[in-house]
Specification:
alpha/beta, magnesium, ten-stranded mixed beta sheet, three-stranded mixed beta sheet, Alkaline_phosphatase_core_sf, alkaline phosphatase activity, single chain, phosphoprotein, zinc
Length: 588
């Protein structure tokens, strides 16, 4: 058991100001809203055929998590945060997705992955199979009629290069939804598949390297060396291979038998120095199990790459294909941090996803690339209690700080709270942050006075105690944000399975290979909206690729996006990463 001590310090003096003094005036809002109306009136639909598709998944990134991540992004830049945007929140098309499973009101990551990747609703903990397969039903999962193909297979059938990036194991539920067909997401290695499945169902790691479409991917980046039989250290994991096979080496050898150059990397330095020109296939496993949180990772050459660096490397390889590509990128530790009620770590993963999406927007041709950002399910996080939003024009006295502090990880002490104890802005309905006692008369919650709730290991309060990976998900709809060809098909509340169908229709793949008609006259498409002209940002990142190697990220004040969507004119857009009011092991 690891006991984490949280240092007790006061964080009440941290105040993030509103960036716009003029926001108190009605004229400010009229100007701002008129600009939004004008943007909406100028939206043009892109009816082109997508050459490339990138699907970004924030695992567990429900609407509340998205909002809190937006605030954190702004506060990291010294602003109040609420007025800003995450990169995908400026996309021209958004909708809501219903995430329920056929047998559960609240989804896990496996059943939901089957929906948005394969286009069918399924059951709890199953992957790549229909609703006729119940959890742990090995026999039914082996029947051909119960198996379904994914967007990965459809893209490969069309000659596109494909890949995945994840901060979890490459055999974990979300990435496995691309290639695995199984009645149990936990069967990531042979030992668990034999123990729980009777030995007749192939484990997920073997499906990745032995079966299509997994074995035909060009890029696989994430964690899970032990599931793949390629451990570099004897650390414990719940799923070690028992057959003695090194599936990474087998995958590499098979690729080379096909005459393709394959590069295998295990740390940041090796990833950043790959030769893009000579590398046909790239596999990177950077941890025995899952990757560390971004706040915990070692940033040196021997450490673990960031989500941004892995996404950049994947695009460098996949962009070489003449027929385009499909790439899925998962920020898996959003979910992990929320399960542990460690909101500081979880929301930092949202910010990292924002950087990866921003990089993709500056790298790719938005005319022929469909970019989606969504979540597989929500979580039980709440943002509550009338926390203050700091007034930039009001000089705070020492006594006012506790009432005016607006740190997203902070606490409030409001008079209507009947136990007269401070409460955190962020709380969970379920999880490990449960901390209540009985004083002989009544139930008493933890007193947060003097507790550093901004510490990365702090577990925010939860109403119901659970195990580490207990039932902490949320069942409300999740948002989906889209830009690129046919992105306007997202327009209301949809079933989650609709995502796979929109991706397929956009690129004329799979079930829409010969059924994806377009209007005769195609109006110029609309890129992600630019910020109001008085908005700037000092926290932007510009990324470029080299034909020789993947380069380190380079910082600049503004993304210069070449917009090829307006009739191929090559117009330049000013797309900021944060457009605010001013200067700106089985996780379920």
């Amino acid at each position: 058991m690891v006991i984490v001590m949280i240092v007790t310090v006061s964080v009440s003096g941290v105040v993030f100001p509103s960036p716009s003094p003029e926001e108190k005036d009605a004229g400010y809002w009229e100007r701002l809203m008129r600009q939004e109306v004008k943007e909406a009136l100028n939206i043009r639909q892109n009816h082109g055929v997508a050459k490339n598709i990138i699907l970004f998944i924030g695992d567990g990134m429900g609407v509340t998590v998205n909002t809190a991540g937006r605030i954190l992004k702004g506060q990291k830049a010294g602003r109040s945060g609420e007025e800003g945007y995450l990169a995908w929140e400026r996309f021209p098309n958004s909708a809501l997705l219903k995430t329920y499973l056929l047998d559960r009101q609240v989804a896990d990551s496996a059943g939901s992955a089957t929906a948005y990747l394969c286009g069918v609703k399924a059951n709890y903990e199953t992957l790549g199979v229909t609703g006729r397969v119940r959890t742990d039903d090995c026999y039914s999962s082996r029947q051909g009629a119960n198996r379904v193909d994914s967007i990965l297979k459809w893209a490969q059938d069309a000659g596109k290069d494909t890949g995945l990036v994840t901060t979890t194991q490459v055999t974990h539920a979300t990435p496995a939804g691309l290639y695995a067909k199984t009645a149990q997401r936990k069967w990531m290695c042979d030992t668990l598949a034999k123990k729980e499945g009777g030995g007749k169902c192939k484990d997920i790691a073997r499906q990745l390297v032995e079966d299509s479409p997994g074995k035909d991917m060009k890029v696989v980046l994430g964690g899970g060396r032990q599931m793949m039989g390629a451990p570099l250290e004897p650390s414990y994991t719940s799923c070690r291979r028992g057959d003695g096979r090194n599936l990474v080496e087998e995958w590499r050898q098979e690729k080379e038998r096909q005459g393709e150059m394959t590069t295998y990397v295990t740390n940041t330095g090796e990833l950043l120095n790959i030769d893009v020109n000579t590398t046909d296939n790239l596999i990177g496993l950077f941890a025995e199990n899952t990757l560390p949180y971004h706040l915990d990772r070692e940033e040196g050459s021997q450490g673990t790459p960031s989500l941004l660096q892995m996404t950049q490397a994947a695009l460098a390889i996949l962009s070489k294909g003449p027929r385009g590509f499909f790439l899925m990128v998962e920020a898996g530790h959003v979910d992990k941090g929320l399960h542990q009620n460690k909101a500081v770590k979880a929301l930092e993963e949202v910010v990292q996803l924002d950087e990866a999406v921003s990089m993709a927007l500056t790298t790719l041709n938005l005319e022929d690339t469909l970019i989606l950002v969504t979540a597989d399910h929500s979580h039980s996080l709440t943002l509550n209690g009338y926390p203050p939003r700091a007034d930039h024009s009001h000089k705070l006295t020492l006594n006012e700080y506790p009432l005016r502090c607006n740190n997203i990880f902070g606490v409030s002490n409001l008079k209507d709270v009947t136990d007269e104890l401070p409460h955190s802005t962020l709380m969970f309905s379920m999880g490990q942050g449960y901390n209540y006692t009985w004083n002989g008369t009544k139930v008493v919650r933890r007193n947060l006075t003097g507790v550093d709730t901004t510490h990365k290991e702090f577990q925010f309060p939860a109403a119901i105690p659970t195990t580490t990976w207990g039932p902490a998900h949320g069942g409300e709809d999740v948002s989906v944000h889209a830009t690129g060809p046919m992105s306007h098909l997202f327009h209301r509340v949809h079933e989650q399975a609709y995502v796979a169908h929109v991706m397929a229709y956009s690129a004329c793949l799979g079930p829409y290979l010969h059924d994806c008609p377009r209007p005769v006259t195609t109006p110029p498409p609309s890129p992600p909206s630019s910020p109001p002209t008085h908005h700037n940002n000092n926290h932007n990142i510009n990324h470029t690729f080299s034909n020789q190697s993947v380069l380190e990220e380079q910082h600049s004040n503004q993304h210069n996006v070449t917009d090829h969507s307006a009739g191929g004119r090559g117009d330049t857009l000013n797309f900021t990463e944060d457009e605010s009011h001013q200067t700106d092991d089985n996780i379920l």
